[in-house]
UniProtKB/TrEMBL annotation:
Stated name of the protein: SDR family NAD(P)-dependent oxidoreductase
Transmembrane feature ranges: none
Stated family: Belongs to the short-chain dehydrogenases/reductases (SDR) family.
Annotated organism of origin: Catenulispora pinistramenti
InterPro entries, per the entry: NAD(P)-bd_dom_sf, SDR_fam, SDR_oxidoreductase
PANTHER family cross-referenced by the UniProt entry: SHORT CHAIN DEHYDROGENASE (PTHR43976), SHORT-CHAIN DEHYDROGENASE_REDUCTASE FAMILY PROTEIN (PTHR43976:SF16)
UniProt keyword list: Oxidoreductase
Length: 308
């Protein structure tokens, strides 16, 4: 069934593959990005989708509309989302593939770089969701998909601003998924490992931090510098995975993508569980006396992560 997709961060990298896959599947796409030149190049993606599908199978491809958008501008996001409804008569899937990655130590990273990373990666996601909900909620269906990173579960020195935003986005989407479950709207945060894109090939800074951070931040920058083992993900395959995900009746709230992310996720969970267990007695010692077993309370039932 043809749908209307809104794809932010559509002009390059994974976003461009998402646009192509959606068009080839017959979906209409509103492609948004801050990169106006990159948006112009999406016409070639549309023509490629037509050549790969319509001319060979007779199945029509979706329609493409582009709009320049800075996700940190809440009013502009509202207008762009409304444009999708005007252009195609509705909205079904909202994907945020936009993002910014700053590299540096917590102490030394420039204030503007901190703000740009948090405002783009976190507030951009929040703006997009809040703009789309008034359209999706009355229809009681739809799917939000956030392209994040497995870094939203781990803690990599050198990526403090980037991963701080990713941790926040992961929590935001878990809350969003639970709020929307009774309505019939899905929310999924995708957590890929490294992806082979043009951005992944951009050189990382090799300095700009105090020498004390060389064993942590410096080692990260040197190890990740254009390392093929850090760029395992195929953006075309990820786009196809997103197509499958949006067709699922019961999609996950979080989904690691790639062998690196799949390996890391349980390692991180096990390490955290082991630390919690090691300090369990001290943790339990802070309750007031005379309280019932917390696990038997109504609050415990409400806050269980497997409850909608």
């Amino acid at each position: 069934m043809s749908e209307t997709w809104f794809v932010a961060g559509a002009a390059g990298g994974l976003g461009r593959h998402l646009v192509g896959a959606a068009l080839a599947a017959g979906h209409d796409v509103l492609a948004a990005d801050i990169d106006a030149d990159g948006l112009c190049e999406l016409k070639a993606v549309e023509l490629k989708a037509v050549a790969a599908t319509g001319s060979l199978t007779g199945r029509p491809t979706g329609r493409l509309v582009t709009t320049e958008l800075d996700l940190t501008d809440r009013l502009a996001v509202d207008q762009a989302v409304r444009q999708a409804g005007t252009a195609f008569g509705g909205l079904d899937v909202v994907i945020n593939s936009a993002g910014h990655r700053g590299v540096g130590s917590v102490e030394d990273m420039d204030e503007q770089e901190w703000r740009r990373t948090i405002e783009t990666n976190l507030y951009g996601s929040i703006h997009l969701v809040r703009a789309a909900l008034p359209i999706l909620r009355p229809r009681r269906r739809g799917h939000f998909v956030q392209i994040s990173t497995i870094g939203g579960r781990r803690a990599q020195p050198g990526l403090a601003a980037y991963q701080t935003a990713a941790w926040a986005v992961g929590g935001f989407f878990e809350i969003l998924a639970r709020e929307l479950a009774p309505i019939g709207i899905h929310a999924t945060v995708l957590e890929p490992g490294g992806i082979r894109t043009a951005r992944a090939d951009q050189p990382l800074p090799t300095g700009g931090w105090h020498h004390e951070y060389e064993p942590t931040v410096g080692r990260f920058a040197r190890t990740y510098q254009r390392n093929p083992d850090v760029q395992r993900g195929d953006p075309a395959k990820i786009a196809e995975a997103v197509l499958r995900l949006t067709a699922e009746p019961d999609p996950p709230t979080r989904l690691p993508l790639g062998s690196d992310a799949v390996w890391l996720a349980p390692q991180i969970a096990a390490a955290r569980a082991a630390q919690d267990a090691a300090w369990r007695d001290l943790s339990l010692s802070t309750d007031r006396d005379g309280l019932p077993d917390f696990t038997t309370t109504e609050v415990a039932h409400m806050v269980r992560p497997d409850q909608p």
